[in-house]
Write a sequence for this structure.
């Protein structure tokens, strides 16, 4: 691949929607360096390769929630005219055969490695939580504060939404 795609960039483009880790069509097309329109054309030509557990279209509510989280343009102001498609890990793997380019193959390898890394992180976090629960049962309440602090460190960071704009004093 011409340029290395850092895992962190790919990780930021993976969302949890309907209980699945997915990537948006527009993010994938940017990584593959093809227009989103072309990506979706190739998918429509090969729909049998993309069952619902590989790819699905977002509902209007899901798209709006995602739009507000990642600040994409609205369809009323020059943005998308249709609801985005999202791809699970299996759907992303299938994309390289549909796009059939060296770039698609290399990008897919990077994405697959990222999905594997995320699974490993989740598994190690689950193992750590089991060990912590076991230790907590073993020791008395004097260590409760320590266990609570460890749990707090293990929890994913809360994403706080900032309000956009300014306040105006009314006279």
């Amino acid at each position: 691949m011409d340029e290395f795609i850092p895992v962190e960039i790919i990780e930021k483009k993976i969302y949890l929607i309907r209980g699945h880790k997915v990537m948006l069509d527009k993010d994938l097309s940017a990584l593959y360096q093809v227009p989103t329109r072309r990506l979706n054309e190739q998918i429509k030509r090969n729909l049998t390769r993309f069952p619902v557990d590989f790819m699905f279209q977002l509902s209007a509510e899901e798209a709006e929630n995602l739009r507000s989280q990642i600040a994409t343009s609205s369809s009323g102001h020059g943005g998308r005219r249709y609801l985005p498609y999202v791809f699970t890990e299996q759907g992303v793997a299938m994309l390289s055969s549909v796009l059939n380019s060296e770039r698609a193959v290399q990008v897919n390898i990077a994405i697959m490695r990222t999905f594997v890394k995320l699974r490993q992180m989740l598994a190690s976090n689950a193992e750590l939580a089991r060990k912590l629960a076991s230790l907590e049962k073993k020791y008395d309440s004097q260590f409760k504060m320590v266990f609570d602090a460890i749990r707090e460190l293990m929890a994913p960071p809360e994403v706080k939404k900032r309000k956009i704009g300014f306040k105006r004093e009314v006279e």
